[in-house]
Design goal:
This protein is an alpha/beta fold. The chain is built from 15 helices and eleven strands. The structure holds glutamine (GLN). The site of glutamine has 14 residues, from strand 4.
Length: about 475
């Protein structure tokens, strides 16, 4: 099977050769045939999706040519789609249903996209492998014995396995880019504020972003353009410069494009096979006349510590709302405090508990200055590293992860090893700048991606650069060896 390409389906729908209803039925057929093995999907409402598809078909017949009209879409199960569950991959939200649409979901629905399923994830988006889901974890379609990457595990698997051409995940420190690299798809983490987070369950609010996922940059741009733009419901949101260039996306001319390779990212920890793929990808850019330079981001070695101190601090505060009073099942308990403690103890998994404890510790009296405040200062230094690098280059190219997808269980008993899978993905979010992951080839049959990072608000330029690369390469067209 060729990769499901939204831009091709778009043409078919516009020409009247395809119907949205047929595409949505096919999505359900594939989910039915494959998801017993892949576990990417947590919830569906087939009747509602088919109704939406038929409405899209009516709009298509009237000549409506909205970019995502009629295209199937999968949503990470920490995004609100009115009436459906929002489990966040946790037991503590059993029975909770979204009372409203997230702004990004509402905009896609208004544009005629058809959500077909809610996707699996690490509990409250905390994880790098998908294994911290409270439910059966999603599996990598390229090798069922390996993790798909996390935390947007199900959303990425859904695109990789051809359930839908578009999916939404969320990215706090790598959660769309890392699984995209492990499963051979393309994913964007936009500039902080480019997409509204209203209706995305908060993990670490100074870092969280919604991230679109698709087979290619051109596909992804269709959904991104519809979602982007200021939202009065999220005061951190803003209008994205260059949004009108997203449809249709044009390839960037690579001649003279200054691409920086941060020397701190090409270290011993990088698996040799992955390093070779990156070199080959960089040669593709160089052959088109790109100007490749080495740059330095000298504070990179502090990134993991900084991220995990700030992330856990914000997690400990954000997750205090899950207490048995407002959402989900309530444990009996005697006093109010006992009830809350019991509800949280039963409802939350080990990784979430670990982060709440770590974060509460970082923020506590006597430790605040030593940990939280120091991490905030380190964040400023990391941001300045990027500012300085972008004085001499237009884009940075780096690995996404030190290796390819790892086997189940390889890192679950060693939190530090799991955190180190994020070593290349946490830094750009700390600076609020956009970055994307796209397929760069295969090592021993397993995919690996390359990451592009740009200055703030350069999202469209990053997608144009990725599009240029994808017109010159075919890695993103390869599909996994799994059959419906
Ligand atoms: N893997 C990272 C973490 O566990 C990133 C998670 C995310 O981006 N949601 O925090």
């Amino acid at each position: 099977m060729a990769a499901v390409a939204a831009v091709d389906w778009r043409k078919g729908l516009d020409a009247g050769d395809l119907s949205s209803e047929a595409l949505v039925r096919d999505a359900f057929r594939r989910i039915g045939a494959l998801d017993d093995r892949l576990h990417a999907i947590l919830a569906m409402d087939e009747e509602r999706s088919l109704r939406l598809a038929r409405q899209a078909d009516i709009r298509l017949r009237t000549g409506d040519r909205t970019p995502v009209l009629g295209l199937p879409l999968v949503l990470k199960d920490n995004l609100h789609w009115s009436g459906l569950q929002v489990s966040c991959g946790s037991r503590i939200l059993d029975g909770y249903r979204a009372p409203y649409d997230a702004t990004v979901v509402g905009r896609l629905l208004a544009a005629g996209a058809v959500p077909v399923a809610k996707a699996n994830l690490d509990e409250f988006a905390m994880g790098s492998s998908g294994e911290f889901s409270a439910f059966e974890p999603a599996r990598n379609p390229w090798d069922l014995a390996r993790v798909p990457g996390g935390s947007s595990s199900g959303s990425v698997v859904a695109v990789s396995a051809g359930y839908a051409p578009l999916a939404l995940g969320s990215d706090t420190g790598g959660s769309v880019r890392l699984p995209a690299s492990f499963c051979n798809v393309t994913a964007l983490r936009p500039t902080y504020g480019a997409l509204s987070r209203y209706g995305l369950t908060a993990m670490a609010s100074s870092l969280d972003q919604v991230g679109p996922i698709a087979a290619s940059a051109a596909d992804l741009a269709l959904a991104f353009g519809v979602m982007a733009g200021r939202d009065p419901m999220d005061s951190t949101s803003m209008d994205l410069p260059g949004r009108e260039r997203l449809n249709p996306l044009r390839p960037k001319s690579l001649k003279g494009l200054r691409i920086g390779l941060p020397k701190e990212y090409f270290t011993d920890g990088l698996e040799p096979g992955v390093g070779d793929l990156l070199e080959a990808a960089i040669r593709v850019f160089a052959r088109q006349g790109a100007d490749i330079r080495e740059v330095s981001l000298p504070h990179t070695r502090y990134a993991i510590d900084t991220y995990y101190l700030l992330c856990t601090s914000e997690v400990s505060s954000n997750l205090s709302r899950f207490d048995g009073v407002r959402y989900g099942p309530r444990s009996p308990g005697g006093s109010l405090t006992e009830m809350m403690a019991e509800t949280r103890d039963r409802g939350l998994g080990p990784e979430v508990k670990r982060r709440i404890l770590l974060g509460a510790f970082c923020l506590s009296k006597g430790y605040y200055d030593a940990f939280y405040l120091k991490a905030l200062r380190a964040r400023t230094l990391l941001t300045r590293d990027f500012d300085r690098a972008f004085e001499s280059v237009d884009v940075l190219a780096t690995p996404v992860s030190p290796g390819t997808a790892f086997p189940f269980g390889a890192k679950t008993d060693d939190p530090l090893a799991m955190y180190l899978a994020d070593v290349f993905t946490v830094t750009a979010p700390l600076a609020g700048i956009p970055c994307l992951s796209m397929p760069a080839g295969f090592v021993g049959g397993l995919p690996a991606g390359i990451q592009l990072i740009g200055p703030g608000c350069s999202d469209v330029m990053l997608l144009e650069t990725a599009h240029a690369f994808q017109l010159l390469t075919s890695h993103h067209l390869e599909t996994p060896p799994i059959h419906a």
